[in-house]
């Protein structure tokens, strides 16, 4: 009896520890990548857009979703339903909708840009919407789809990313504390080979097919004329759409991976747990919304609480600060007025907020164009002289 | 070896020619000139390959890797080089005591403080101040104290004035909320006697000081070791979790959202200037801020969000606490300006439709909440205008009506930037934040150095340009400067230095040209080189082998006659 009690206490303690561990991540990011262009790869873009719709539905804001689409199926001239992308022949949900934010499009989707995105080795002038701003507290979902082979994934018919490079990119992300936990999903032929080289911890990886297996499309829409979604993605989405109905869902990764049905998917999906601390038993406990949803533990401020750091206390302190500044401003302006009469238009506050200024056109360079022309002329002259001299001497 | 017809000919060829001369026509023997020419041609080819081809290939395929002080970087990461310490200087003014009395008080208080302190990295040093000018509240100085990064000597963290007051039974203290000053009042008969080793007044002062800095100590301890001891660890880790990651520049975005056509304008410029700029100025030594504002009319809730419910008892529309995370319509509200380089803090002022006013949070009638690491929301319920068509929101929000909202935003800003909750004096809290941030940046820049060092070692195919090496040396020098500033108690200077170190460390790690997508498996390399090396390499190698063979044979032939003679 006593042992039972102590056992259950231990269990409770374990659960508690597990809870505090899961509560650690503070933000969610999603990187959704399709890697193939052209009309007959319609399904790859539909895969990614379906996932995009799902993570957005579960609460990840656009600013934390990086969407890479190498082609624009909605505006393809062969699209019988212009402006739309569907992932199902019933055409119930237009994935393109009126509110999607594509961060990398067309020929911007390259291996280099993808690796730069993950490792944040980007130019300073790249806007924040195109950056992965994750930190040590972020759970990151990486979904890739396209045409692949043994340990590579083809990008844009022109280049490929190797499993080693992907592993190194994740390794660097871990080194720089750019993720807390990472879920890697890939739907391509021989997909499971893509995560074999991963070595950084806290990664759960899953793919659609084993080595030497193809990953098949699910069904075609006869009016669109091409296959509209891949099998593995279709069944993952089916799980996410029918089971994970709200951001508060308690379903975990174990449930998601258990839902794989090889007879339906027509290939053997794989899961890699060994990088995750605690391995499979621990990893299975992570909820699906840990990766597909967004944490937002809002903190309501109680206007009546009086503990230190509460709203009321802070307000009093800030009010005092503001008062003091007003006093100081008055004194300052009084001094200004006394000493100099003509500097009345000087701002009375000593805090300089950025004033709006209209910016006129500026010259890009300030070197004289005539100097350049002179140099050019003399170069041409010298070349001509050499040519003339050469032809004269060579005769 | 009997035939001496030609010295130059190889013995094998000779043997062939003698044995087969009867059946086959022998090619004419090569002249020594032809052999010389062939030797020169082959030598020329190989010379080009060895002296020109090979260096060019080596040069063009090798990866430039600047030298980095790997060991030093790793040592910083391991914390072997710097143990950050935080000596706080506290001035004690005792205008109403004799010098000997005050010295005794100071000595005993310091003794008690040292006994109380169990966290060695953070300690308080008391210093006597004799002139009365320092004891008067010098506001200008106090406000600027944390802004003055180049100030010489240790900063004064706190000024304690010890004053006697009639009619007191036991000592009491009073902390000024707008300055860094603590007044301690004591009954006149509590003046410590030189004989007593532990007078109650010293014990009281020591306890007060200890209490003032307990949260800071716990926070710094948490940052340095990753675990908290003593103080409420849950609240500290919660605070660290919800506060933004440090950035040099934060972007503040103030948005007015309303589901209807009014209010369509607000006195935002004056509101920001009046209510927010004092705080931003106080934050200047820690971070920079840029501000933008927007007004969005007809902003609806997301279709997924549960709508507010009318509560009869409260006579108000209410939102449930668990639904608040769905309040912001991230899909449709334009909240992601993505301007500039810093992270954005969003502050949303939501004015509900007249039909849903007033709108409050159900559980505690609060009208504001914080979204960790993202921003804050304030529900403003203005007094409605009534005319013949019904009730409507006022078209313009004056800056008086914005006052509660902006005061709340200021509070939210303090929270989001990780300001500690105690002591109850804003300048002191900002000083604490300075120290906490300096410690955080010191650690984060050090760990970036360690990451870069490990990355350099583990990925030999990644190029390391010279700019990285210079950034690394800047980082390391600023890190050691930070460390020594901390030791001297010059925290503003330490923070300034740590900011440079952090920026440079980030720059070196995120150097654009360090992209490792050059990994090729060995079979790829063979596939690249084989078409080139096959057709060219085989004739070259074969000819070299033949020539070497010929030379060896000739040397043997030369030796053999010498031996036989």
UniProtKB/TrEMBL annotation, chain A:
Kindly tell me the pathway this chain contributes to.
Answer: Glycolipid biosynthesis; glycosylphosphatidylinositol-anchor biosynthesis
A GO MF term = GPI-anchor transamidase activity
Tell me which positions the record assigns to the signal sequence: 1-23
Q: Does the keyword GTP-binding apply?
A: no
GO BP terms: namely: attachment of GPI anchor to protein; GPI anchor biosynthetic process; proteolysis
Active-site annotation = 147, 189 (nucleophile)
- UniProt entry keywords in alphabetical sequence: GPI-anchor biosynthesis, Signal
Q: Which InterPro entries match?
A: GPI_transamidase, Peptidase_C13
Q: What is the similarity comment for this entry? A: Belongs to the peptidase C13 family.
| Protein name per the record | GPI-anchor transamidase
The species is Penicillium angulare
From TrEMBL, chain B:
Q: What is this protein called?
A: Phosphatidylinositol-glycan biosynthesis class S protein
Question: What is the similarity comment for this entry?
Answer: Belongs to the PIGS family.
Source organism of the structure: Penicillium angulare
* Pfam families, alphabetized: PIG-S
Parts of the chain that traverse the membrane:
39-58, 526-545
Look up and give the membrane topology term: Multi-pass membrane protein
Q: Which GO terms describe its cellular component?
A: GPI-anchor transamidase complex
Name the residue ranges with Basic and acidic residues bias: 1-10
Q: In which pathway does it act?
A: Glycolipid biosynthesis; glycosylphosphatidylinositol-anchor biosynthesis
């Amino acid at each position: 009896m006593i042992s039972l009690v102590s056992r259950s206490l231990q269990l409770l303690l374990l659960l508690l520890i597990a809870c505090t561990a899961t509560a650690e991540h503070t933000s969610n990011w999603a990187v959704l990548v399709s890697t193939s262009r052209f009309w007959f790869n319609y399904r790859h873009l539909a895969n990614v857009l379906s996932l995009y719709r799902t993570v957005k539905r579960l609460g990840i804001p656009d600013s934390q979703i990086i969407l890479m689409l190498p082609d624009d199926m909605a505006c393809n001239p062969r699209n019988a339903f212009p402006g739309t992308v569907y992932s199902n022949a019933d055409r119930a949900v237009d994935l393109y909708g009126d509110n999607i934010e594509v961060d990398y499009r067309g020929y911007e989707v390259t291996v280099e840009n993808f690796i730069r995105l993950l490792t944040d080795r980007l130019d300073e002038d790249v806007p924040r919407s195109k950056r992965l701003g994750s930190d040590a507290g972020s759970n990151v979902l990486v979904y890739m789809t396209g045409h692949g082979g043994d340990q590579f994934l083809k990008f844009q018919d022109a280049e490929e990313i190797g499993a080693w490079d992907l592993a190194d990119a994740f390794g660097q992300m871990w080194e720089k504390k750019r993720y807390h936990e990472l879920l890697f999903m890939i739907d391509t032929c021989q997909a499971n080979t893509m995560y074999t080289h991963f070595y950084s911890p806290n990664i759960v990886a899953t793919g659609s097919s084993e080595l030497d297996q193809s990953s098949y499309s699910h069904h075609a829409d006869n009016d669109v004329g091409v296959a509209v979604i891949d099998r593995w993605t279709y069944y993952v989405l089916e799980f996410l759409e029918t089971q994970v109905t709200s951001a508060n869902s308690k379903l975990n990764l174990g449930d998601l991976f258990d839902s794989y049905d090889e007879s339906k998917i027509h290939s053997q999906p794989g899961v890699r747990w060994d990088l995750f601390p605690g391995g499979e038993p621990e990893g299975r406990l992570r909820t699906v919304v840990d990766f597909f949803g967004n944490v937002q533990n809002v903190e309501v401020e109680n206007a009546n609480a009086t503990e230190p750091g509460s709203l009321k206390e802070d307000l009093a302190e800030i009010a005092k600060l503001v008062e003091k500044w007003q006093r100081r401003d008055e004194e300052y302006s009084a001094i200004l007025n006394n000493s100099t009469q003509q500097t009345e238009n000087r701002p009375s506050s000593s805090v300089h907020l950025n004033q709006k200024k209209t910016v006129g056109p500026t010259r890009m360079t300030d070197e004289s164009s005539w100097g350049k022309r002179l140099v050019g002329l003399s170069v041409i002259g010298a070349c001509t002289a050499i040519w003339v001299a050469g032809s004269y001497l060579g005769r | 070896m009997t035939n001496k017809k030609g010295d130059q000919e190889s013995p094998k060829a000779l043997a062939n020619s003698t044995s087969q001369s009867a059946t086959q026509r022998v090619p004419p023997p090569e002249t020594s000139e032809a052999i010389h020419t062939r030797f020169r041609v082959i030598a020329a080819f190989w010379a080009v390959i060895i002296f020109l081809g090979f260096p060019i290939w080596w040069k063009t395929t090798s990866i430039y890797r600047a030298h980095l002080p790997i060991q030093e970087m790793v040592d910083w990461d391991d914390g072997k080089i710097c143990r950050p310490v935080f000596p706080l200087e506290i001035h004690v003014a005792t205008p109403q005591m004799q010098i000997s009395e005050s010295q005794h008080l100071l000595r005993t208080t310091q003794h008690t403080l040292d006994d109380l302190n169990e966290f060695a990295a953070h300690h308080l040093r008391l210093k006597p101040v004799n002139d009365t000018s320092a004891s008067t509240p010098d506001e200008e100085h106090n406000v600027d104290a944390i802004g003055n990064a180049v100030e010489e000597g240790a900063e004064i963290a706190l000024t304690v004035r010890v004053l006697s007051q009639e009619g007191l039974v036991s000592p009491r203290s009073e902390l000024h909320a707008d300055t860094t000053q603590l007044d301690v009042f004591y009954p006149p008969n509590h003046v410590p006697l030189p004989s007593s080793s532990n007078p109650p007044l010293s014990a009281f002062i020591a306890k007060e000081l200890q209490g003032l800095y307990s949260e800071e100590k716990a926070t710094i301890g948490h940052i340095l070791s990753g675990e908290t001891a003593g103080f409420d660890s849950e609240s500290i880790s919660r605070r660290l979790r919800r506060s933004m990651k440090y950035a040099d520049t934060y972007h503040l975005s103030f948005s007015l959202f309303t589901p209807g056509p009014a209010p369509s304008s607000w006195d935002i410029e004056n509101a920001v200037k009046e209510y927010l700029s004092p705080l931003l100025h106080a934050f200047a030594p820690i971070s920079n801020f840029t501000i933008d504002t927007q007004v969005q009319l007809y902003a609806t809730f997301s279709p997924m969000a549960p709508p507010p419910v009318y509560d009869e008892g409260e006579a108000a529309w209410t939102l449930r606490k668990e639904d608040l995370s769905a309040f912001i319509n991230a899909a449709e509200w334009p909240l992601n300006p993505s301007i500039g380089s810093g992270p954005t803090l969003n502050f949303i002022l939501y004015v509900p439709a007249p039909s849903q006013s007033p709108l409050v949070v159900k559980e505690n009638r609060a009208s504001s909440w914080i979204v960790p690491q993202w921003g804050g929301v304030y529900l403003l319920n203005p007094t409605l205008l009534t005319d013949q068509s019904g009730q409507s929101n006022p078209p313009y929000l004056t800056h008086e009506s914005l006052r509660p909202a902006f005061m709340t935003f200021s509070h939210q800003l303090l929270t989001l930037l990780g300001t500690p909750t105690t002591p109850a004096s804003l300048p002191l809290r900002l000083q604490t934040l300075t120290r906490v941030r300096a410690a955080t940046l010191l650690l984060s820049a050090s760990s970036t150095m360690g990451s870069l060092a490990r990355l350099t070692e583990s990925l030999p195919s990644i190029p390391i340009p010279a700019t990285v090496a210079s950034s690394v040396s800047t980082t390391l020098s600023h890190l050691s400067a930070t460390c020594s500033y901390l030791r001297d108690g010059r925290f503003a200077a330490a923070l300034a230095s740590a900011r440079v170190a952090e920026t440079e460390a980030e720059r070196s790690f995120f150097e654009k040209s360090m992209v490792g997508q050059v990994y090729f498996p060995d079979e790829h390399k063979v596939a690249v080189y084989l078409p080139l090396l096959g057709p060219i390499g085989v004739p070259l190698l074969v000819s070299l082998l033949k020539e070497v063979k010929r030379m060896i044979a000739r040397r043997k032939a030369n030796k053999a006659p010498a031996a036989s003679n």
